[in-house]
Amino acid sequence: MRQGTVGLAVLITLCFLAAGPVSAQIEAPQDLFFAEMPDDVKVQTKNLYSANTAEQIAAAKKLGQMGAKAEPAIHYLIDALSKEIGGSVRQAIVDALVKLGDPAKKALTDALKSPMPEIRRMVVLALGNLKDPSTVDALAAAVLQDADPSVRQNAVAALMKIEGAGLVEKM
After folding, report:
1. CA gap 72, 102 in Å, rounded
2. Tell me, what's the pLDDT at 33?
3. Is the pLDDT of residue 113 over 60?
């Protein structure tokens, strides 16, 4: 009997390893199921809400690679940032938003109002990676007004990435 129990434990372990890392299932917004977007974008957007961390990361990367086609997913990428997800998933989402570029800029700027400092921290870095001078005002406001010291610190680092930001005039 003991040998059967050990064999079962090994089988269960192998199944988990094959499936990839698992995180908590996060609930997808109901409007996602009715959203107008290309089928492949919708599939990857739904995968952002998977219980499998590897699927979440892969979905974010694929959306980032789709370019303008994935613009309808920006709202959901920002929404997923507010969920209980791991840091690697959060980073993959931010990277995807940076790759989507200008269309994601407003959503990222709006996300600076999030009550969650970890989201604001990631968003200021993403805005810095866009290297877009039009984001300087939002980043300067984060430096001067955000309650979280790590958000302020990341906002300073983000501003330093933007050439011609006119930092002295903004401060």
Report:
1. 13
2. 73
3. yes
